[in-house]
Amino acid sequence: MQIFIPLLIGIGLIYYQYSSFSEEQIKRIKVYFKSADYFYVLLSVIISLFGYWSRSYRWKYSLQHLGYEPKFHNSFFAVSISYLINLTIPRSGEVTRAIILKKYEGIPFDKGFGTIVAERVIDFLIFLLFVITAFLLQFDKINHFIFSNISPNRIIFITIIGFISFFAFLLIWKWAKWPIILKIKSKFIGLIEGMTSVLKMKNKWKYLFHSFFIWFCYLLMFYVCIFSIPETASISFDVVIMGFIFGSLAVGFTNGGIGAFPISIAKVLLLYGIAEDAGTALGWIIWTSQTLLTIILGLFSYLFLNIFNKN
Description:
Number of helices: 13
Order of helices and strands: HHHHHHHHHHHHH
Number of strands: 0
Radius of gyration: 21 Å
Largest sheet: none
C-alpha cells in the first residue's frame, strides 16, 4: 500500500492535469519537448552527479566521527541505490543505505542510520532557509495571492485554529503519557542528538560545506533547465527558487514526484505569467531527466556494488 497509494495519487494528478488541457495545449507541450535545447538538460544531469558525489563524500565525516572509515565507492553506491529505492516507497532508501553499509562495511545499522538522520535534519534546515529566502523575495506576490484567493475572515479563522492547535500540541507533548506520544518523543530526541553530533565532529565545517554544496547543486540543476525552453528562459532567479521549493515538496508527495512535480512547477510559474503548457513541459523535462539518472545510476550501482566487493 505504501507503494501503490502515492503511485495512484501521481497517476490521478497526471490524468487531472491533462484532462484539463485543450488539444492545442497538448500539441504545444509535445512541440516543447521536441524543440527543447537538451544541452541544458545534459548540463543539469552532470550537475546532479556532483550532488551525488558530495552527498556520498559528506557521509564519511559523520562516520569518521563514530570511528569508521568506509570506502568511498561503497558510500556512493549506497547513496545511488537509496535514491532508486525512494522511487518506490518515499524515504525507504535511507534504511537501505544503512543496510548496505552494514553488509559491506560492517558498520552497525543503528549507527549508520543515525548518521543519515543527522543528514536529514541538516538538509531540512537548509531547505527551510530556501523557504524563508523565497518568502522574503516574493513577499508581495505571496501576500497578494493569499489575500486575493482567501477571504480575511477565513484567514483569521485559520490563524485562531492554528494557535489553538499549537497550544493543544504543547500541552499534549508536555503531559500526555500515551504510547504513541512517548514513541514520537524518543524519535525527536534522536533527531536532536543526530543534529548536535554534527557540531561535535572534527570536520564539521567540511561537513557543513558539503551540505550547502549539495543543495546548491540541486538548485543549479533546476536553474539551468529553464534555458531549455525559450518561454521559461527569462524568468528571474527568485521565481526559480519558488519553483524549486514547490518541486522539492512535490517529490515527497508521490513516488519520486510522479505527476506532482510537473503540476507544481506549472502552477507556480503560472503565477508569474508563464503559460501552463510551457510550465508543464519544463516540469516533465526536469522530472524525466532526473528520474532516468536515478534509475540508471541506481541499477549500475547495484551491479557494481557486488563487483567491487567480490573479495
